[in-house]
Amino acid sequence: MHDYTQADLDPQTRGMLDFAARLTREPWSMKKEHVDGLRALGLSDEQVLSVVLIACRFNFLTRLADGLGVELESGVMEETQAWISGPAREQEWLIR
User: Which residues contact 89 (CB under 8 A, 6 or more apart)?
Assistant: First the structure.
């Protein structure tokens, strides 16, 4: 729970977490090959987009909360999933 790199995970889950960790820690280093790596693990373009959106929203919200010195309300991640499953799919600029 505290260190996913020590957990017994399937390759796809580990790949998604590695991708999200890199996007979080070193966003400037992201390249097409990282996206291609997720595709090679069997993720569709829509699933890759979901990984990116979840990581971005989580990073945004935690930095917002940390910057203001507040805690996030419960249910924030559930709202993220609902957004990705619905309104985000309708945005042509997100999915091409």
Answer: 46, 95
Strand segments (E) across 1-96: none
Structure tokens at 34: 């990282």
pLDDT tens per residue across all 96 residues of the chain: 578 899 898 999 999 999 999 999 999 999 999 999 999 999 999 899 989 988 998 888 888 888 998 887 777 767 766 766 666 666 665 554
Amino acid letter for position 72: L
Cα–Cα nearest to 47, from 37, 56, 58, 39: 39
Closest C-alpha among 83, 10, 3, 74 to residue 49:
83
The overall longest dimension of the chain from CA atoms, in Å, is: 40
